[in-house]
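Need residues for this backbone.
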């Protein structure tokens, strides 16, 4: 069986058009397009082309079937969102010297949803906890939550992943630690006496997290093979940044730019209140709009930058009623 497996693998590697580079201890990218003939070939292609160890076992197989059959429409939404953020995330990972395929961790974390919020209070496409976010330089205050910012949160997540890999020396372990925390993984290694991820006794969510990532990565490389034809991908994220001093209503900023409030809000998901905060802030604007905004901003009187509403509290008013009336939350 082993001889057959090695022979089959070598035949496939030749078909993939890859070459072994001993000094790099890895496989170079396929030299031409590859169309897998089976699910197993698709996984092996990913294993050959990615510096992250990817395996084909019962747990990976089960997660592939889960995405393809049980959660098909959910995964289609994830694929649709993916193209909006993958370019930004890959560039961050590349700048940090990390494997670009780690971008697909954001897929299993949140489905590339910058406004994702978990029961454990993790936020954003990388599902960062508040303490972790602040430790890696993100601002989280009343006005701004940079965990929702795809660029800034990716920079923080990349540094976190780099630290985890530096400690554990194996991407499967680093990815597991990202999910359950490095302390819990250290205890599992001590308790089990092994660094083999597949033999560790971990929380069920973490045990499924790594094979779930491998499955999502594989399907995302070959969506059509796995039956995801005709995905209506979102356009890649494009923007310019302008420096703004002091508070400003985002609706006023949208009017100066000539775009919709919804478009500007989507470019700035870190803004929690619909306002630019009362300190120096880098505002994202549509590509090509920076000059137009800055010219209009310079001519706008400061008193017109913020629109306030005054509400006289009456008997029977509740925080919930007021929040609903003014489009905000009680938090």
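Answer:
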């Amino acid at each position: 069986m082993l001889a057959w497996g090695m022979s089959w693998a070598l035949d496939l590697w030749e078909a993939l058009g890859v070459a072994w580079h001993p000094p790099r201890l890895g496989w170079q990218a396929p030299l031409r397009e590859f169309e897998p003939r089976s699910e197993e070939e698709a996984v092996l292609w990913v294993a050959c082309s990615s510096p992250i160890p990817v395996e084909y076992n019962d747990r990976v197989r089960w997660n592939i079937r889960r995405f393809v059959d049980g959660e098909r429409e959910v995964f289609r939404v994830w694929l649709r969102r993916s193209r909006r953020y993958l370019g930004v995330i890959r560039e961050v990972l590349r700048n940090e010297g990390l494997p670009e395929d780690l971008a697909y961790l954001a897929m299993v974390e949140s489905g590339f949803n910058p406004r994702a919020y978990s029961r454990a209070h993790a936020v954003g496409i990388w599902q960062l906890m508040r303490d972790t976010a602040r430790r890696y330089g993100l601002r989280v205050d009343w006005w701004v939550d940079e965990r929702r910012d795809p660029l800034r949160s990716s920079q923080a997540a990349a540094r976190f992943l780099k630290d985890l890999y530096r400690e554990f020396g194996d991407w499967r372990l680093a990815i597991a630690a990202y999910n359950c925390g490095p302390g819990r993984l250290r205890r599992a290694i001590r308790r089990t006496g092994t660094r083999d991820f597949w033999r560790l006794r971990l929380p069920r969510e973490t045990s499924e997290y790594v094979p779930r990532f491998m499955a999502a990565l594989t399907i995302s490389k070959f969506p059509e093979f796995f039956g995801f034809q005709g995905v209506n991908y979102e356009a890649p994220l494009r923007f310019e940044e302008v420096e703004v001093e002091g508070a400003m209503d985002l609706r006023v900023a949208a009017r100066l730019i000539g775009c919709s409030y919804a478009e500007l809000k989507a470019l700035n998901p870190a803004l929690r209140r619909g306002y630019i905060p009362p300190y120096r802030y880098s505002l994202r604007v549509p590509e090509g709009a920076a000059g137009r905004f800055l010219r209009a901003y310079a001519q706008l009187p400061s008193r017109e930058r913020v629109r306030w509403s005054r509400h006289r509290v009456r008997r029977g008013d509740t925080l919930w009623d007021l929040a609903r009336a003014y489009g905000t939350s009680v938090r």
